[in-house]
Amino acid sequence: MKKIFTFLPLILIALTLTAFGCQKFGGGSPKVNVPSGWTTYTDTTYNFSVSYPDNMELNQRPGESQDSTYIGLNGKFFLSIRDLGRETEKVATMALFYAFKNVTVEQFTNALLASDPDNITIRETTDVVQGDISMKKIVSSTAMGVDKTHYLFQNGENLIVISLILGEDEAFKPIFETITLPQ
Question: Which residues lie across from 163 on neighbouring strands?
Answer without folding.
Answer: 96, 150
